[in-house]
Amino acid sequence: MTTATVAKRLSAKTGRSRWLVRLAVVLIVAVWTVPSLGLLTNSFRTSVDSSSTGWWTSLFDPVATAWTLDNYNRVLTSGGLFDALVNSLIVTIPSTVIPITLAAFAAFGFAWLKFRGRSLMFGVLVGLIVVPLQLALVPMLKIYQSTALTGSFLGIWLAHTGFGLPLAVFLLYNYISQLPKDIFESAYIDGASPYTAFTKLVLPLSVPALASFAILQFLWVWNDFLVALVFLGTSSDVAVLTIELASIVGSRGEAFHLLTAAAFVSMVIPMIVFLSLQRYFVRGLLAGSVKG
Amino acid sequence: MRPTPSGLKFLRALLMAAAVIAALWVGLRVLRDPNVFAGLGPSLSKLAQALVAMILGVGGIWALFHAANVMIEALPGRATDFLRPYVFVVPAVAVVGLYLIYPTVGTVVESFTDVPAGADPLTNYRQAFTNQEVLQAMRNNLVWLLIAPAVSVIIGLAFAALVDRVRREAVAKTFVFMPLAVSFVGASVIWRFMYAWKPPGQPQIGVLNAIWVAAGGVLVDLGLLAEVEPVAWLQVIPWNTVALIAIMVWLQVGLAMVILSAAIKGVPPELIEAARIDGASELQSFFRITVPSIWGSILTVFTTIAIAVLKVFDIIFVTTGGNFDTSVVAVRMYQEMFRFRNFGQATTMAVILLLAVLPLMAINIRNLRRQGVGA
User: Fold this and answer.
1) Which of B264, B241, B266, B269 is nearest to B331 (CA)?
2) Under a CB-based contact definition with an 8 Å cutoff, are residues B122 and A145 in contact?
3) How many CA atoms lie within 13 A of B212 on its CB side?
4) Is A13 a residue whose pLDDT tops 60?
5) What are the pLDDT digits (tens) for B280-333?
6) Spatial distance between the Cα atoms of B54 and B358, rounded to a whole number of angstroms
7) What pLDDT was estimated at residue A253?
8) Class of the domain covering B126-195+233-371
9) Do the beta carbons of residue A256 and residue B207 sit within 8 Å?
10) Which residues, in sequence order, are CB contacts of A160 under 8 Å at separation 6+?
11) Is-contact A176 A108, C-beta < 8 A?
12) Boundaries of every domain in chain B
């Protein structure tokens, strides 16, 4: 066998294997996309179509299909999903901002201020990353039920804050403690208090770390079901999207035209956040894969 | 300007703090009462409520910190210096103390003490480990643990390695990554639709049964199979647990893929090239060079998914409610809490979860330290 034939055989082999690689990638992408594609397609089909034929038949024949926005109209108006969407915003935005604020202050304090009990407090706080939130449910439920916190937005903001704080302090401390020392010294010489140094210097410099945690926490709270179920409950004036969606599964489990539309409503905002801020999200994921 | 006397300064700070707290109190009362904005009509009143909530939640926390700082600054110099660090760290420590430390201790204590009078402290645990349904739930957690992390890591690793060699890598990755933004509840709805079942003879509306019936139909035509029936995937024991695990895998592969893809790109190309020049095939260099170099990341992804799997709740609660032998410890705990009102058993379930998660956490943290992430 000459070297030329060897080279040819090699390239033929790589040519075929490249084709196989492509096929495998396309196959995995298809398997990962088909479920969401089905959801989206079916949410625009009539109830008759939805219960009598597969959603793919509409994709194969889009012209003959009677596409409709009726399902969205129904779940948003009579289905109570609009209120749930607003409730999700009411829960999620403060439940993201409050822990970030508390964690940023604490991270700055632990990194740059000297006081007694510093390493003990920091160790305990970050060590609590390992505790599954199930450990908190029974005692906190008792406290909530004996106070006015059950079913209140304040109650769930604080709950999400408590459960998110250890990771937030951990991530922000890692970032804030690495900031150059000189910037604080020159600020203090100019007469700034630590509070001013924190708000005017540290926060603007920490935007990447703040954004990473913000996205992680936003998605976590938006998609949370258990904490909302236990502490906020299912009554319609406070129920968030995941709760409302689960209750539609319970009451209209076979009405897939409504279920798919409702599920899609619950997914829109996290999708937008996710796709537009993917870069920060990946960074947060890499650092945050410890969370319990 | 003459410096304000410190007594007056402190009084002013105190008044400001009182005003902040009073405003928050009033605001929270308004937020609790949905009828306040009723005059605006249903949608507008809801949006008005949201606006109040944002101002309270986001503005409130900053107003509180600011008020605390003003108060501290008004104190005599030495007291200011002593107290200042605590203004920064105590709020976080206090919230975590209330929401994690206190209840964790309380849960562990209650699991031993919430027993009938005179019974020994291990009663709850003895009861848990002899109850067939609890044992079934634990077995299911074990099945989840054996399948979900390994399958997610293998698919994620394979995809990360393969996608490295195709064009439009970023687009392909986004599709696999996307489920990470979907809630467990949303994913459960998506997959309930995938698993949908219609009686034999009717057109199937679920993808899986459509494929199943079509493929089976071909086999029947060939005479290899007597008949084919659509399957109620979420009810057939034990395959329903596998069907539920598939939902978790669908959600978690993106996580595995992103972290492992970053790790693969960090392997020095010289290493791979050297192996290839020495005659190693692509597969050999992958298993002998790439995989060992990224072993730390593989382990981290595996333990991270394993921890999520041990605590899995939403998927089962929404799809089967724990029926058809699909329950797991976290679902059982919820039922003990709300259906049976048996807090002794519920806390015992929580402690069992903690004990199962702790060793994985230990591996995870040690491993992250070694890689220097967050050190």
Assistant:
1) B241
2) no
3) 20
4) no
5) 888 888 999 999 999 988 998 999 999 999 999 999 999 999 999 999 999 999
6) 37
7) 87
8) mainly alpha
9) no
10) A91, A95, A99, A217, A221, A224, A227
11) yes
12) 6-113, 126-195+233-371
Contacts of B82 (CB under 8 A, 6+ apart): A115
Share of chain A above pLDDT 90, in %: 69
Q: Quick one: pLDDT at residue B75? A: 85
Three-state SS for A115?
Answer: coil
Torsion (CA) B314, B317, B318, B323 in degrees, nearest 10 = 150
Question: End-to-end alpha-carbon separation of chain A, Å?
Answer: 59
Q: Give A182: exposed, middle or buried? Use CB within 10 Å, 0-12, 13-18, 19+.
A: exposed
pLDDT above 70 coverage of chain B, percent: 96
Among A25, A141, A161, select the one facing B166 at the smallest CB separation: A25
Say yes or no to pLDDT of B67 above 80: yes
Q: Using 50, 70 and 90 to split pLDDT, how confident is the model at B374?
A: very low
Q: Which two tokens stand for residue B130?
A: 């002899």
Confidence (pLDDT) at B4: 58
Taking CB atoms and an 8 Å limit, are A163 and B99 in contact across chains? yes
B46 HSE (CA, 13 A, CB side): 17
Whole-structure pTM value: 0.92
Lookup: tokens for A20: 């196989």
Q: What are the structural domain ranges in chain A?
A: 3-72, 75-288
Interface test with B, best of A32, A78, A285 (most B CBs within 10 A): A32
Q: Which residues of A209-218 are buried (b: 16+ CB within 10 A; e: fewer)?
A: bbbbbbbbbb
Is A3 a residue whose pLDDT tops 80? Answer: no
A17 CB burial (10 A radius; 0-12, 13-18, 19+): middle
Q: Quick one: pLDDT at residue B371?
A: 61
Which one has a higher pLDDT value, A286 or A110?
A110
CATH number of A75-288: 1.10.3720.10
Please, is A3 exposed, middle or buried when counting C-beta atoms within 10 Å of its C-beta (0-12, 13-18, 19+)? exposed
Confidence of residue A287 (pLDDT cuts 50, 70, 90): low
Higher pLDDT, B96 or A148: B96
- The encoded tokens of residue B339 equal 């259906």
Q: Which of A133, A96, A127 is nearest to A277 (CA)?
A: A96
At residue A14, the pLDDT reads 62
How high is the pLDDT of residue A11? 45
Backbone region of residue B296 per phi and psi (left: phi > 0; alpha: psi in -120 to 50; beta: other values):
alpha
CA distance B347 to chain A (A): 7
The answer to whether A173 touches A110, Cβ cutoff 8 Å, is yes
How far apart, in whole angstroms, are the C-alpha atoms of residue B303 and residue B308?
9
Q: B113-157: per-residue pLDDT in tens?
A: 999 988 899 999 999 999 999 999 999 999 999 999 999 999 999
Q: Distance from A229 to chain B by nearest Cα, in Å?
A: 10
DSSP string of B151-207?
HHHHHHHHHHHHHTTSSSHHHHHHHHHGGGGS-HHHHHHHHHHHT----TTSPP-SH
**Is B251 part of the contact surface with chain A (CB cutoff 8 Å)?**
no
Residues of A within 8 A of B30 (CB-CB) are none
